[in-house]
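Dissemination and training. As part of the outreach component of the grant, students in the summer workshop were shown how a complex can be specified as a set of sequence lines and then modelled as a single object. The example used during the hands-on session is reproduced here so that future cohorts can follow it. Participants entered these lines:
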Amino acid sequence: MSGGATSLLRVHNEAIRSANPSESSLSSRDMNPPTVISARNLTKAYGDLTAVDNISFDVPAGESFGLLGPNGAGKSTTMKMIGGVSQRTSGALTIMGLDPESHGPEVRAHLGVVPQQDNLDEELRVRENLIVYGRYFGLPLSYLRPKADELLEFAQLTDKANSKVDALSGGMKRRLTIARSLINEPRILLLDEPTTGLDPQARHILWDRLFRLKESGVTLILTTHYMDEAEQLCDRLIVVDKGRIMAEGSPAALIREHSSREVLELRFGSERNATIGVELQGIGERLETLPDRVLIYAHDGEAALEQVTARGLRPMTSLVRRSSLEDVFLRLTGRSLVD
Amino acid sequence: MSVLTGGHSATDMARERKFGSLYSRNAKAVVGRGLMAAKSSTWLVMVSGFFEPVLFLLAMGVGMGSIVGTVQGPGGEEISYAAYIAPALLAVSAMNGAIYDSTWNVFFKMNFAKLYQGMLYTSLGPLDVAIGEIFLALLRGLLYATGFTAVMGVMGLLTSWWAILVIPASVLIAFGFASFGMGITSFMKTFQQMDWINFFLLPMFLFSATFYPLSVYPQVIQWFIQAMPLWHGVELLRQISVGSFSPATAIHVGYYVVMIALGIMLTTGRLRQLFLK
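and obtained this result:
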């Protein structure tokens, strides 16, 4: 057991791969990476509430896949079902060819999980957190000791190795949680709102670390409601609302499909926006009147602004910007508050 | 052995396994975590848990005992009052140790530290967690029992070599309470509800023939007390301490065996319900 845990881990991964002949033959035939997560008509109901409503998606190995949606859209529930800690009501779900419900421990042996709220072990010190977590996977200490040091380095926490967990800052805790999730060299990393509550510096450090993981071939599944995060990290994403998939595609494709190239933002003062909105009809592809401003979705924002001034309207401020994922998100999931 | 390092294919192992996604034969990782955590934190609580029955033994056994004199032991022989209540206090000590670990500690880990959520996102199944936590409670029970038995020995309250068996018997008692305690704790949501556990334990401690024989009660109350787990523990240890056995000994042991089996079923079922819903 002491000799070469990494090689044992690799052997084990081979075993899992060969246990799924359908995947390996598929990948050799058309050179596409194998599908690591496959959901078909996945549904989860809590009593009358349908948290996840008949969603289907596939995630190929090595992809960075995002789940976007407002609070209560069913993102975390989907993550829990993937981890096998929530039982689906109906539908099919396989993780690397295994059903997480009947093979929970095996599936989770290949998963790294970063939950929405840090659940680090506060009774243990920083390095102990990594080692003990690795023990939960049944990994030997001879593998875990060097691995823990390597991960502390990766998470930029080496000098905090013997600190207590509650002495760490929010960003450090988050990095430690991510380091912990990597202790078993997971093939799939589940990140539930990984940067919520962090300051910009800490977020950028995290993004950098996550991007490195992606480069090393780890499949990332992440939920977020930061659109810039999704644009930074996701190859492909689904927008979910009320448990259903509203749209699916790469960030650029979603913007092309559901928004214009540019957006013109005009402010006429809170009282006048609504009345002036009527006079702006016909400019651009679509017009949206908000309490504080008017948005004109157009291919060419400057041209749209010229049309506005040509009609004799003088906005207090105007701004032309590129369309973002946030525009897509708000268009698909609405602007009303979700609690 | 564990899922990752043993065997050729985890998939095959899972198919052969009886408990499927409930158990990955790795409860030792949970135990290891508990020992590592205990290293830094809970020594003071552990020490206080040990002294409580010792203080009772001094106050009641030695203090009160001086006016009580001798009483009739389980085999009909006359023994000192301290020797009469010491095994009962040992049973209480085993119960308290097990209950502390399996209720308050578990309550905290479940609701505040979110420890089990973290564990169950690894290869561990709920049965690994339950077995590991119960084992830790037993370890504490064993420590308390060994310490208290040593105190009994020093005070000259042990009259038979059979008495050494009170240690494993205490672990049996601790096992019964620990396996049930964790399951019951899983129903608790607030601190007020946790107080109900004390509300149940205190009268059981006082009235389970701990300080005087069961025969002082009317018949109906006797039946009620005989249905409670602590009474069986008290009687079992009292019999062992003087080496006087009867068919009732087997009933006492059997009571705990059934309690352990039901408790583990309850706890595993509850953990599954709570974390794998």
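Chain B touches chain A through 40 residues (CB under 8 Å). Students were then asked to discuss how this feature might be tested experimentally.
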